[in-house]
Amino acid sequence: MFDFRFFEIYRSSEYINLLIDGILISSSLTITSGIIGFVIAFILAASIYWKIKPLNYISICWIDFIRNTPLIVQLFFVTFGLPLIFQYVWPFWAHALLALTINFTGYFGEILRSGFNSTPNSQLEAAYSLNLDKLTIFRKIVLPHTLIKMFPSLSSQFIFIFLTTGIISEIGVNDLTHAGLYIDSRTFRTFEIFIVLSILYVALSLTFKASLEFVFNKTLKKRM
Questions:
Q1: Backbone angles phi, psi at 87, to 5 degrees
Q2: 3 falls in which pLDDT band (50, 70, 90)?
Q3: Do the beta carbons of residue 141 and residue 127 sit within 8 Å?
Q4: C-alpha dihedral sign at 77, 79, 84, 87
Q5: Is the pTM of this model over 0.70?
Q6: What contacts 24+ positions apart, CB below 8 Å, involve 134-143?
Q7: Which residue of 29, 43, 84, 162 has the fewest CB atoms within a 10 Å radius of its CB?
Q8: pLDDT at 143
Q9: How far is CA 197 from the centre of its chain?
C-alpha cells in the first residue's frame, strides 16, 4: 500500500510559505490581467460592433490571432522575443502579466463581440421606434443584455486562464505550480504534492467563481 506522507509538506514552514506566496502571485497576476484584459477587450469588441474603421479590422485580426495561438507560445514570445526586438528588460512576473493580459483580450473580446451581436432585433427596433440615439441604445440595451447573457462565459474563461497560469512557472515565476515543483524537488513526494496543488487550485477556482457571482449579483445585475 502506498505510504502517504503529507506531513513532509505541512511540517515545514518554508514549504507552507512558498505555497502561500504561490497562491498570492497566481491570484494577483490573474486578477490584474483579467481586469486590464477586459477593458481592452471591451474596446476591441465595441470597435467591431460600431464598425470603426480601420480599428474594427485590426480588432478582428487581433482576436482571431490570439484565439488561434497557444498561451505558452504567447508567453515565450513576450518573454524572450519582445525584449530582443525592443531591447528592454523586465522581471519575469511582468512578462507573465503581459502575456496573460494579451490572452484575456482575445477571448474576452470574442465573448463580448458575440454578446453585442446577440441582442434581439425586437429590442433594438423598439428602441429605434422611441427615437433613442445609438449611444443610449448601446448603453441601456445592448451592454446590459451582453453582460447578463455572457457573464457565465466570461467568468468561465477567467477561471480557465487562472487554471492555465501554471505554465508561467516555465519562465521562472514563483507561482503556485512553481512552488509545488520546488517542494517536490526537495521531498520527492510527487504524488502528495500534486494532490495538494489540485486541492488548492480547485479551492481557488471555486472562490473566484463565488466572488464573481457575488459581485455581479450585488452590483451589476441589480443596476441593470
A1: 55, 60
A2: confident
A3: yes
A4: positive
A5: yes
A6: 138/49, 142/49, 142/116
A7: 84
A8: 92
A9: 19
Q: Give DSSP secondary structure letters for 11-39.
A: T-HHHHHHHHHHHHHHHHHHHHHHHHHHH
CA distance 41 to 1: 51
- Rg for the chain (alpha carbons), in Å? 21
Q: What is the pLDDT of residue 2?
A: 66
CA 79 to chain CA centroid, Å, is: 18
Per-residue model confidence (pLDDT) at position 223:
53
3-state percent breakdown (helix, strand, coil) of the chain, nearest 5: 85, 0, 15
What top-level class would CATH report for the domain 7-223? Answer: mainly alpha
**Alpha carbon distance 220, 215 (integer Å):** 7
- Nearest-angstrom CA–CA distance, 43 and 138: 13
Residue 17 and residue 23: Cα distance in Å, rounded?
Answer: 10
Which pLDDT score, from 0 to 100, does residue 130 have?
87
Residue range 123-143: average pLDDT? 90
The C-alpha cell at 63 is: 482576436
